[in-house]
Amino acid sequence: MKLQEIHTLAQQHDIEPGSLSKADLIREIQQQEGNFDCFASARNQECDQLDCKWRDDCFALSRE
After folding, report:
1. 3-class DSSP state for residue 43?
2. Cys staple from 30: which of 7, 21, 25, 37, with CB 3.0 to 4.6 Å?
């Protein structure tokens, strides 16, 4: 997901994007949605959150 889309989603949850990194911003959104704030923490490309909208980006960043 592009950063501008993430900023828009954050604002919908009354989160001020400010200077948060992409990963930190997504974790804030996850918390506001009542989900685990686990973005970019998947180890060995394993995650039981199959319906997560961040899944592809998460796996990409967790490889780094």
Report:
1. strand
2. 37
